Each structure stands twice: as C-alpha cells, then as structure tokens.
Amino acid sequence: MFKFLTHPAPTAADERAKRLIDPGFGRVFTDHMATIRWTEADGWHDAQIGPRQPFQIDPAASVLHYAQEIFEGMKAYRSGNGVTLFRPLENAARFARSAERLAMPVLPDDLFIGAIEALVRTEIDWIPEQEGSSLYLRPFMFANEAFLGVRAATEYMFCVIASPASAYFKGGAKPVKLWVSDDYTRAAPGGTGAAKCGGNYASSLVAQQQAVAKGCDQVVFLDAAEHRWVEELGGMNMFFVFDDGTLRTPPLGTILPGITRASILTLARDRGMTVEEAPYDIDSWKADAASGRLTEAFACGTAAVVAAVGEIRWTGGEQAVGGGVEGPVTTSLRAELTGIQRGERPDPHGWNHTVTLG
Ligand SMILES: *Cc1c(COP(=O)(O)O)cnc(C)c1O
Fold first, then answer.
1. Distance 201 CA to ligand 1 centre (A)
2. For site-directed labelling of 169, which of 16, 147, 216, 334 has its Cα 20 to 30 A away?
3. Strands 32-39 and 155-165: what pairing?
4. Pocket probe mutation, ligand 1, options 70, 91, 192, 237, max atoms within 8 Å of Cβ
5. Does the domain made of 176-341 have the CATH classification 3.20.10.10?
6. For domain 3-165, is the CATH number 3.40.50.410?
7. pLDDT tens digit sequence for 151-210
C-alpha cells in the first residue's frame, strides 16, 4: 500500500544512539515520514514512506491563510520484543471527526493506521528504551491548494512524523500550577473546541504566556458563555477527586474528547469509584480546595499521561490543591494506565494494539 523511498543518508547508528539518550520532547526527529495526498479529482493517493524533508507548498496554500489543519498525538511503546500503540483506532476516529468539523476529507481508518504502522516499522530503531520513554507520533493534515478564495480547499496533504520522547516528568512528577484565565477562552458552543485543530492552539498561546508570567505552568480555561465552568487546559483534560471518593471531570461538548480522559473514566469505574461527567465551577473549586472537600486534582493527556495539580492562581488570589502535593488517587491511576501501556499490567479492555513487525 505504501511505496517506500530509500533515504539517501540515514542517521548513523552511533549518532542515533546519542540523540536517543535524552531526547526531551518534540526536538529530535526520525529519518522518515509517511505522506498521503488527497485531491478532489483522485481522492487519496500517492501513499509513501520517504525521507523526512521540508514540504514545498505554494505561498497561496490555504492552510497558510485560513488554517485548515488538524492533528493527532499518540505514542509507540516498546513492550517485550514488540511494539504497541495505545488505542490507535480512537485516534483515527477522532481525526475523522476533526476533519469533518474543518470541512476536510476523511482519511479512512485503514490508511490512518496503515501509515502509522508503516512508519513505526521503518523507525523501530528510534524507539527509546528507557523507562517511560516512547516514540511520539504526530499525524496531521493540511490544505495545500493554491487559492485565496474562502472555501474548503480541494487539495490536502496527510503526513505522519515521529519524534523520540523522554519520560515527560523525570525524577518524579512535580505538581503543576494552573493560571485561571479570566479574559481568554479556548472554545465556545458551536466552535471547534472538540476538534484537534492547530487553530485552537494558536488562540491559546497568549493565555499560556500570561500563565507563565504569573509563575504558572499551564492555563485552565473556563467556558465562554459564563466564565464560570471549568473546561480544560490548553492541551489536557481535567479531573477532580473529592473526599467522598467521587471522581469528576467536565462533560464533553466544547472540550477535546481525550483518549486518556476516556481511559481514566473506564479505569475508575472498573475500581468501583463514583464517576461523574458533570460541570464544576471555578468558585466551588476554590472553596472545595480550601475546605479540603477537594482532595486532588489532575490533568491528563497523551504527552504527560497524568499530571497532578498543586495550586491554582487567579487575578487577586491563589489556593493550594491537595496541600500542594500529588495525592494517592492521581498516583495510582497514573501507575495503572502507564502499566497497561508498557505491557506490565493486564489489559482487560484490549487497549494495546500490537504493531506487526517484519
Ligand atoms: C490532545 C488534547 C487533549 C488530550 O487528548 P488525549 O487523547 O488524551 O491525548 C486534551 N485537550 C486538548 C485541547 C487536546 O488537544
């Protein structure tokens, strides 16, 4: 299905080993990429694995002007002698939903998974071995028709690149501080909040700069209509743990439907926890954190998996959450999820997808 183009000068094994010692996140890239083109006339065609190299796009390409772009994020893990992906069909399905929302053509699941598997097989030697590390995969699609008229483009490029990633939190997770944005929102009803599109990130960056200026790590966004209901971070979903053992997360709608979020909901239900997908307002968060009714809060997503929240800050105040330290529910949900992903714990829901090698 995928044509293979030989790389003229692949990275030498000793150089690769050096780059894999501590790759960090999103800086080191493998030698190859997967690409598939779409045109109105020919549909999906030209599927290939070839050398990773710059695209040639016209200065009038629609993505540069009207931001028709979507992406996914997923990880390949070493487990035993094999390589596994975590729930990749969920990424394929979400990519299709994002495409529909952005008026882009839908890539069939078998091409999405086929591109990822073909790239992972090609780059198997780039998967780092250290505990907690992985090969981060970034599928994305953009409009590359050279046309300045405002309408859905008639030409697209789908691509997957791969980037070795260190464990997100080295030497134990330090709880993050969140800035409660009172002037910016990330999504409104009817908008693109549930689609994984670059534009959502572009509009969140100024709020993220504010968060950093306030000494925080991330922004927590509230709803657009009332500026009251907790939605999510720029790239992670939120969970709350209460002293009666209840686990709560904001409902779907304007937030991004995280695969980590869905997996944690399932694991918590499996444990017999009371689980609520229900709105939570920022004033309750402040009051419950102060009273101790809220015992833990954490954020989750593919990159960091689970990150404890130790403090929230807002204009004119701040409040520790869970005494500023990571709580036991956060720790054990992370351990369970990462254990499944690394093949060290039973996988009762069949979430791991083995990549067939050779
Ligand atoms: C990708 C993303 C998440 C997390 O989704 P996962 O599938 O768990 O990685 C959460 N929020 C936003 C805005 C995202 O883009």
1. 11
2. 16
3. antiparallel
4. 237
5. yes
6. no
7. 999 999 999 999 999 987 655 678 999 999 999 999 999 999 999 999 999 999 999 999
